[in-house]
Write a structure and sequence with these properties.
384 residues, mainly alpha, Serine Threonine Protein Phosphatase 5, Tetratricopeptide repeat, 0% strand, elongated
Length: 384
């Protein structure tokens, strides 16, 4: 054994007692300070006890009052979100408006206001009332930026703004908002795998898809899918939402077999979760119908589009953008089937709705107008 090793072992044995001695001295000094403080306040102990009792007497009833006062809000917000998931948008709207009126009487810093504003924006988006959704979405972002800049409320609110911009066909603006939401999340939230972050990536994928940035779109959608598979499982409705987006990207890339396979999985998940008649299932079927239409499988396209159209008519009021989208697709199908009068009727009706609710320059409106023009060109060719 060398002298150095012996010294090292000696130090290891001898140092702890000194450290322990120092700690005991500190504890003893602390106890003396506590006793000294108790001696000073002891003449006032009765007064302190009275103040404490009064504080409890005020705080406990106040806490009970706040809890009772909040109960209607939480009951309504829960019911509203349940209705929304079932596609019962009118009932959801009533519950959320009740919550909104309650929140307006409270402090603007209350995170509940952000939640209910988000929900109202989602209802109005879901029912195609995009212009009505806009002020709620804008107010949500403003509140989140002012009071919750480093919490989840801000990136989630930005994500909803991006979704609304996508609905309005403003895809480049939506892309910028989604990228800001992702940057805000990465800077402040720092949770790499979260279903809310997945929603942001999926929305970004839609923006990129509609701009023709297909490789970027697919990468974004695949990131969203990986997050949701980890958070909710591979067969969740959250994953189905991303899978539909991914299928549309694959279709635009000309990878029709992969797109169809992906859509089949999407439809299976949503039907199992919601049944045959639900807006999500109708969306899947419309996407599948358009895929069959592009591939020239007109019989299967007809079946899918008819089911989608019937379901959307059952859930939404006439003129809803998704009804118009399905009607426009049916018009394109009728044209390919050689039924020009029927195609023209369907496309004109779809165009009227889209112009009214989306505006003349919305991509869906322009697509329908182009399809209608083709029916007229066909007629001109036939008359020559």
């Amino acid at each position: 054994m060398t002298d150095e090793t012996s010294k090292s072992e000696y130090s290891a044995v001898s140092e702890p007692p000194k450290q322990a001695s120092g700690i005991r001295a500190k504890f003893a000094a602390a106890r003396q300070r506590v006793r000294a403080f108790q001696d000073k306040v002891s003449p006032y102990q009765k007064t302190i006890n009275k103040v404490r009792i009064i504080a409890y007497a005020i705080a406990i009833p106040w806490a009970v009052f706040i809890a009772i006062k909040s109960m209607p809000y939480y009951a309504s917000i829960g019911k509203g979100e349940s209705y929304f998931k079932q596609g019962l948008y009118e009932q959801a709207e009533k519950e959320f408006l009740f919550c909104y009126e309650q929140c307006k009487t409270e402090n603007a810093k209350d995170p509940r206001m952000v939640r209910v504003l988000n929900n109202l924006g989602m209802v109005y988006r879901g029912t195609g009332r995009y212009r009505l959704a806009a002020p709620y979405v804008k107010e949500t972002v403003e509140i989140a930026e002012k009071y919750f800049p480093k919490r989840q409320e801000l990136p989630i609110s930005l994500s909803n703004e991006g979704a609304l911009l996508n609905d309005l066909g403003q895809y480049s603006q939506a892309e910028s908002v989604y990228k800001r939401a992702i940057e805000t999340w990465k800077t402040n939230i720092r949770k790499d795998s979260d279903t809310k972050l997945a929603a942001i990536y999926n929305g970004l994928g839609r923006s990129l898809r509609e701009q023709g940035k297909l490789n970027e779109a697919r990468k974004s959608a695949e990131e969203a899918l990986a997050m949701r598979e980890k958070a909710t499982g591979k067969d969740s409705v959250e994953c189905a939402e991303v899978l539909e987006n991914l299928a549309k990207i694959l279709q635009k890339q000309g990878r029709f077999d992969e797109a169809e396979k992906t859509l089949n999985k999407t439809i299976a998940i949503d039907r199992k979760a919601y049944g045959e008649k639900h807006p999500n299932v109708a969306s899947d079927e419309c996407t599948m119908g358009r895929l069959f239409l592009e591939r020239g499988n007109l019989e299967e396209a007809q079946k899918c589009l008819d089911r989608s159209f019937q379901t959307r008519q059952a859930f939404f009021k006439p003129g809803h953008p998704t009804i118009a989208k399905t009607l426009s697709s049916l018009g394109e199908l009728s044209l390919k089937q050689g039924d020009k009068p029927k195609a023209k009727k369907q496309l004109r009706e779809a165009l009227e709705f889209q112009t009214k609710y989306l505006g003349a320059q919305h991509p869906d409106t322009l697509e329908t107008a182009e399809a209608l023009r083709k029916t007229e060109d066909v007629n001109i060719e036939a008359s020559k």
